[in-house]
Amino acid sequence: MAFGRRRQEQQSSAKAAETAPVEEESSRARTAGPWDAVEDTAPEMERLDFGALQVPIGPGLEVQVNLEPTEVDGEGNPVNGRIVAITVIAGQSSMQLQAFAAPKRSGIWEELRRELAEEITGNAEGQVQEAEGPFGTEVRALIPAQLTQEMLEQMPEEVRSQIPQEIIDQGFAYQPLRFLGVDGPRWFLRALVAGEATESEEAWQPLEDVLSQIVVVRGDQPMPPREALPLVLPAEAKNAMAQGGEGGDGDEDEKDDFDPFTPGTHITEVR
Questions:
Q1: pLDDT for residue 246
Q2: Is 259 inside a domain boundary?
Q3: Does a structural domain hold residue 157?
Q4: Number of domains into which the chain is organized
Q5: Are 210 and 179 in contact (CB under 8 A)?
Q6: How far is Cα of residue 237 from the mean position of the Cα atoms in its chain?
Q7: Is residue 13 part of a domain?
Q8: Average pLDDT per consecutive 10 residues, the chain (271 residues; last block may be shorter)
Q9: b/e code 100-138 from CB counts within 10 Å (16+ = b)
Q10: Does the CA dihedral 76-79-83-89 come out positive or negative?
């Protein structure tokens, strides 16, 4: 949402943004996360290295890589893709993470909040309000989500029985979302929260802990503001995929037991 506007203008301003004077606030070392890799102030802990984002891991968390297809087979099915986001799942809650380039001289979250509000209330016909959260001002939204008969039939009965009849009759339900933004030195980190963590502090806590310990690796290359920072698969995941593809004479029990991540943390692909 809202990150693709004025791309041509931004391309021409990339060099100017990189060479602009740095404000005093941007040059100070951060005293709380998310952290900047250059400042080297992040507490030591185990993190998955996705390139631009180093994401802390722990028991009970699932980490997904969100892929944009770059290649399809003869039947149109995706066979290759580019990582565009990282999603952390804790119970019935999820948090999608994306990092973008930003100017040295100022943050972009204030402007993006206005654009998000316009897009949600206009194109999506939703509702928005701003609220103060643990990482500053955030956008809380209610967005209409289609509720079809097929979806209802696939729901567990205990979930289906909790949906009011008037919601079923109107054919849609409002989905609560939280948009959080953190302006860093030459980068911007966005988190999109869905599920129970939009309303429950208890459900939100493990995701807040993850967000507060993320390390952003901006890199030195000039980039226009709002361009996505590159994400890659962690080395552990690449090694696991390589071992899984060897087949043949290996010990199948050893392969089944192989887990490159901390126990309780899993990584999957979403295309």
A1: 59
A2: yes
A3: yes
A4: 1
A5: no
A6: 18
A7: yes
A8: 44 48 46 90 94 94 90 78 94 97 93 96 92 97 90 85 86 93 97 97 97 96 95 81 57 39 48 53
A9: bbbbeebbbbeebbeebbebbeeeeebebeeeeeebeeb
A10: positive
Using omega within 30 degrees of 0 as the cis cutoff, is the peptide bond preceding 34 cis? yes
Q: Which two tokens stand for residue 239?
A: 């090694």
Q: Find the domain containing 96 and state its range.
A: 7-270
* pLDDT for the residue numbered 87: 97
Written as six digits, the tokens of 224 are 């226009």
The residue type at 207:
L
What string of DSSP letters covers 184-253? ETTEEEEEEEEEGGGT-HHHHHHHHHHHHT-EE---SS---TTPBPPB---HHHHHHHHHHHH-TTS-HH
Q: 89 — phi, psi (to 5°)?
A: -115, 130
Question: What predicted TM-score, i.e. pTM, was given to this entire model?
Answer: 0.78
Backbone angles phi, psi at 225, to 5 degrees: -55, 140
> Is 153 part of any domain?
yes
Give CA torsion, residues 132, 133, 139, 142, to 10 deg.
Answer: -110
- Distances in Å between the Cα of 5 and the Cα atoms of 23, 59, 67, 226 are 25, 39, 21, 9
Cα-Cα-Cα-Cα dihedral sign, residues 198, 98, 47, 103 = negative
Other Cβ atoms less than 10 A from the Cβ of 80: the count is: 11
Q: Given the DSSP bridges, would you call strands 78-90 and 93-101 parallel, antiparallel or unpaired?
A: antiparallel
Structure tokens at 122: 């206009």
Q: Order of strands across the sheet with 215-216? A: 35-36, 215-216, 53-56, 47-49
Which position has the token pair 């920072």? 229
Question: Which residues on neighbouring strands pair with residue 119, listed in sequence order?
Answer: none
